[in-house]
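Q: Predict the bound structure with uridine-5'-diphosphate.
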Amino acid sequence: METHVALLPSAGMGHLMPSLRLAAMLASRNCKVTILTAQPTVSAAESNHLNSFFSAHPHIQRLDFHVIPLHSSNPHDDPFALQFEAIVRSVHLLPPLLSSLSPPVSALFLDIAAAECVDQLADEPSLSISYYILSITSARFYSLITHLPHLTLEGSCNNLQLPSLPSFSVSNIPPVLFNPENIFTTRLISNLRAVSKVKGVVANTFHWFEPETIEALNSGRTMITLPQFLPIGPFKYHKSVCENTSLPKWLDEQPAKSVVYVCFGNRTAMSKDQIKELGEGLLKSKQRFLWVLKSVKVDRVEETGLEELLGSSLLGRIKEKRQGMVVKEWVQQEEILSHPAIGGFFSHGGWNSVMEAAKSGVPTLDWALNGDQRFNAEAMEKAGLGLWPKHWGWLGERLVKSEEIEEKITQLMEDHKLRSMAQKVGEEATKAWEIDGTSEKVLGQIIEMLKLKV
Ligand code: UDP
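A: Predicted complex:
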């Protein structure tokens, strides 16, 4: 019988993109795939992307999962973290949905932010399925957070050494994890308690990129018993049918490897002062640039125009010098990174972005701003993909001045050693997907596990 698998993505583009890519990868290996789409989505980007994904992949089935909305009186609560909570609280609606699928579903892949659902689903007599988690972060950060339910984090020591894992610098742990009351932290810990109940953890990383951590996770010598860690990155791109997101023509007119692509993911809202320093730094570097500027966390919120964000003087100079382009719309990042004109990527170190840069072998300057990004940046730097100016601090910790940005952008674009190391990363990423490549083999192993229901 055909192997039928379901996926449950959670909220935010950084979560949705890897789920869709995994769905497309499983479908390309002859699995029937159904995606449970939590409705309503938090951002417009998510609903647009889902529509274009299903148009481009008509053989993948969509099943809307109407979650019970969760309203918070605290305006500081992250809307994406609230949606993670809403999905978990709506878990009782999942068994009838899953049971309605034909042929019967044999496995469910849940985004790590919805992992807690396994607790209830596993006890559901009407379902006979195996569970997998999709980790959307570096193996390095995953290895820390799996231990979170068993640790008391203290800011007073410098390093954290867990048995058989690489040591972690405490200053790289996101401050929010030291606050057990925070909704993000409580949710993460509950999700991580469920990890031990799943068959495997599928991850968007590859053996060559994080060898020690991946081997440690699968060594059986960690402090707690962990399910098999299954690295199958960098995830392959999926087709999408997006109108209005064609690459800027300007890019085609630029010389090879001459443009810095600047994008800090979907959810980074920088202060206006910092945005101005960034713009001045880019201009001072004299490098060509394509800058995707996002000023709000959720794209449904009224956005400020470019002129108001950058100021008319800076915007005027950018236009006058024709050194670069600033856009506020959603762009096809993976296509941009593989464009011949791109010579560097100035990023926030979101893990999808790191893997996309690795795939294209583009030297990266990571300004780790939030969450897992310092751990990701450490992994990225260690693999030789690029630079991480750690002293720039977390988002908002201090104003990073234009001269500092200019210096690092120049290094990013002009350091030949950096460029050849990044190219080597790209070659290794390609090898991971060749016949008998590490990721190709692990994906084959996952398909076998699904078929045999082991
Ligand atoms: N992305 C994109 N276009 C944009 C902004 C982001 O395609 O205009 C994609 C990017 O390629 C990546 C994802 O959105 O796949 C962002 O995920 P990441 O983990 O890098 O960062 P997050 O947004 O979760 O902080």
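A: Residues 245-430 form a domain with the Rossmann fold fold (CATH 3.40.50.2000).
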